[in-house]
Amino acid sequence: MTIKITKCSLEDLQILQELSIETFNDTFKDQNSPENMKAYLERAFNSEQLEKELANGSSEFFFILFNEELAGYLKVNMNDAQSEKMGDESLEIERIYIRSHFQRKGLGKYLINKAMEIAKSQNKKMIWLGVWEKNENAIDFYKKMGFVQTGAHSFYMGDEEQIDFILTKTLVSRTNN
Fold it and tell me: Using an 8 Å Cβ cutoff, are 152 and 131 in contact?
């Protein structure tokens, strides 16, 4: 088993778009109306939107490959790119999307660790994310990874307001005395 994490660039736009739509649809289609799913997918993952996100210097995307096959991706945001005002000492994990047939292989842990590595290299003191209150598998996973719920915010799926829990993890700084 080989796992590789590579940084995405603008050249990866089409692959990123296809992977975003596939993974989001697979994860959430059964709990949402087709109209709301369509509206969200068209807004969040259109080419112009993803190109803008890829070009933002305060956001980074990383593909994860499992045995040389594209399995998912991570998106992190810092500074003003964060979807909530959490401060300059925070890093947001906006997306951890894993293809359904690659789930439960430990890939999410690799992506969380990548986010923590980035946060520490940028001297961030905390990482955080939003997760849908009904996504119990994801919530359980994040809690096992050391995240705690510290708040909630609204997330719009088409015209439906949903609640995302805000989960945070404080990073331990290593100081040399």
Answer: no
